[in-house]
Structures are given as structure tokens and as C-alpha cells.
Amino acid sequence: MREAVFVKHNAGKWKAFEDIQGTAADELARNFIELTDDLSYARTFYPGSETVRYLNGIASRYHLLIYRNKRENRNRFLKFWTRELPIELAASRRYLLYSFLIFLLASCFGVFSTAQDESFVRLILGDRYVNMTLENIEKGDPMAVYKSMDQAEMFLFITFNNIKVSFLAFVAGALFSFGTVWILFRNGIMLGAFQYFFYQKGLLTSSVLTIWIHGTLEISAIIIAGAAGMVMGNSLLFPGTWSRLESFKRGARRGLKIVIGLVPVFIVAGFLEGFVTRHTGMPMWLSIGIITCSAAFILYYFVIYPIKLRTSFANGKDQPEGRTGFRPED
Fold first, then answer.
1. Do 222 and 187 meet the contact criterion of CB atoms below 8 Å apart?
2. What pLDDT was estimated at residue 102?
3. Which InterPro entries does this UniProt record tie to the protein (predicted)?
């Protein structure tokens, strides 16, 4: 159907839908369903057209009115972790992939650069840290740095520092995602140089079994925070049918939701680094068990579960709030 025919056929109905004041709840729901169906059709056959913008505007008003008047669920806190955050993660999954690939590429760059030039690790990690680590290796305790602070003090310091880094990675997305990419790349290079440095000293296995006790959660959370920054940054780059300001506000809200969801992860990572990592003589099976459980949690909650939830919505087996969980163009 040509766009002009589609508009002529539905113009009267849409005009009537514009007046939503005083409309009964059941009628609101019926009108909203019809609007979303028409909007989906227009997006498919007339993308970027004035018809799409017009319908999106009306649908947005209905969406705001319906959900503004909806009573808050008493289990709002639980719903955030079991529904809202996973749904947002599913919608942002390609940014999570981009963030992971950027970090992985940067880590490979750090490994390659350190392999080619031994002074590179000093450039990245600093002379003070490298010299201290070399002294610890000579003393027979290469991971002594994790025993240098009081446990509670270290827990608080590491936790707040990690949360600061994650919010910085998110906020840097306001620079059209380039700030976030830089932070991811910088941290990836540091990790690659750090791990290869221990490999050069014949300590790769012991370093992995120690550092990744907390690093599995910590590094994963930084990558996910990077994805949140890209969500916000790309909302500026690609506003779609929204104004750039409105698109940015929506992207910022979506990204902030993801970053807030990472706070408990950083708290657990800080606890592990402050209270557990320092026990470098723990049995190998225990270290591997902690690392495996951490990796399994990250993979399931932040990747697998959101995809399963999204698939169940698509198949109609479950629905987020409302009939379709519709969000006018994200």
C-alpha cells in the first residue's frame, strides 16, 4: 500500500485518537494497541517518513498517560533486577558486544606491545608499581600488593574506585561514545600489559588464579559500563525520529539503569579483593571455583537471561508491563 493511501485510509481515526483527555481506560488501551500496530506498519514500509514521526508522537502521549496512571508495584525493587534491568540489557546487547570486542582488542594490543618492548609495561603501569612488584617477586610473594592494606580499608577503597571508573566510562559516552571507547581501550591495554608482564616472569598461572578472583567481576562490570556509555553516546549520534536532546535523555536514562545495576557487582568484587584475594596460598580448586562461579553469574545474568526473557516476550509467553512492552522509538 502506498503511503498516501495508508494515510488517507487512517487519517480520521488518528485525528480522533489525538484527543485523549477523559478517555476511558479500556478505550485508551484499545486505541494504544491500534496505534502501535499502525506505527509498526509505517516503520516497516515508510521508515523515516512524516507518518512515522506523527504516529510516534501520538503513541508516546498514550504511553506516558497509561504508565503515569499505573500504580507502582510494591515489588518494584525485585522487578528492577528480574525484569527491567535484564530487558534493558537485552535491548543493548549489541553495545555489550562492541564493548567486549574493544576491550579484547586493547588487551591484545597491550600483550603485543609488552612482548615487543619490555619498557612498555612501565609506561602503562608506572615505574613505582613495576619496581614494587619486582621486589615482591624477589621476596617470593609476587602478589603481596593485595596484603599491603587493611582488609576493610582496601574493600572500601577498591569498591568506590571501581564504581567511579564505571560511572566515568558511562558519562564519557556523552562525547558521542568516543570517551567511553577511550576508557575501555586504556583499561584493556593495562590488563594485557599487566598479564604479559607476569607471563614474562613465569608467573602467569599464579597471577590468573589470584587476580581473577576479583577481576572476573571487576573487568566484566567495566565492559558492561562501557556498553552503557555507548547506549547514551549513540543516542546522540543516531537520534532517529526523536530530537537529539530527547534521544539523548532517553539514552542517558537507559544507560544509567545499566550502571546502577552494576553497583552490587562492584561491591562483591571489592569484597573479594579486600578479603579473599590476599590469601594467595588458598587451594587451587577454591580459586578456580570462585572464578568459575563469578564468570557463570556474569554470563547468565547479563547475557543469557536477558536474551531468554526477550525471547519469551517475542513468543508471547510472557509480557513486560502492558500488552507488548512497547517503547516509542528507543
1. yes
2. 97
3. SpoIIM-like
